[in-house]
UniProtKB/TrEMBL annotation:
Segments forming domain UspA: 1-45, 74-157, 166-286
Gene3D superfamilies xrefs: HUPs
Domain of life: Bacteria
Protein name (record): Nucleotide-binding universal stress protein, UspA family
Family indicated by similarity: Belongs to the universal stress protein A family.
Amino acid sequence: MKNILVPTDFSAESHHAYEVALQLAQQTGGSVTLLHVLEAPESATPNFSTFGGPVNGTELPNSGGMDQLFTIKLMEVTKRRMNQLKEEAATLAPSVSVQDAVEVSRIGDGILTAVEKYGIDLVVMGAQGHGAMEGFFVGSNTERIIRLAPCPVLSVKHAQSGFDVRNIVFPSDFTEEAAAAIEGLRQVVAAFPNATLHLLYVASNTDGTTAEQHIQVFAERVGLTNYKIDVVNAARTSTGIEQFAQEVKADLVVIPTHARTGLSRFLQTSIAETVATSAFPPVLTYHLKSSG
């Protein structure tokens, strides 16, 4: 996860994500690409098949008239703000290479395009819940990237006073399906070797002792170390995850997902989306590779 993309709208949420991304890149020897998505005027052609020419290296839609003039001016302001963020990085993380990019598109499409264009390994993006005002990181946009991005997505909602990960929460039902997620989890644990891994099972009216024994067998079978087993009762899986993460002061929640239907509820994308936009700590989501 060395090639990191940070979508930004210059809000507090995107700045929180930027700071976390710089710290991760510094730890891993990675680089950061700052992305701003300019939504083209409504009068522009839907597929942007004709362009008004490049501004600072970015093609603009040939919408003509005041719309195009406004877009050009907005691009110039965007570039200045991007440069300010790059200058900030030179102070916060001088060893990290930071480049900037602008896509002219719908927000979600622009982010997904950039992931492919720049060979991104990890998207670190700000997140707001559905109760927030409509904006770049409103819940629906974040959820779409979690669902469609081919790489892991780290959602950040609050400022992190040093992204020093000491407690990682991994919610699962620890079935055979869950075993497919372990390789991704190992990569996370390897990045934070001093962290305690909380293996969390959430259910309603479950037998705690039986569940703990099941998790213990699973952990030994897949070779996990430095972990704690936690079983909680909650009416909703996402609520149980969020409450437990707050209780143990989790620094990171890790949730694998799968696009296939009929799998464990812990692997349902909807659970990951809800937790990513609701839980307090940063939430890392990643897709399991399809078996067929």
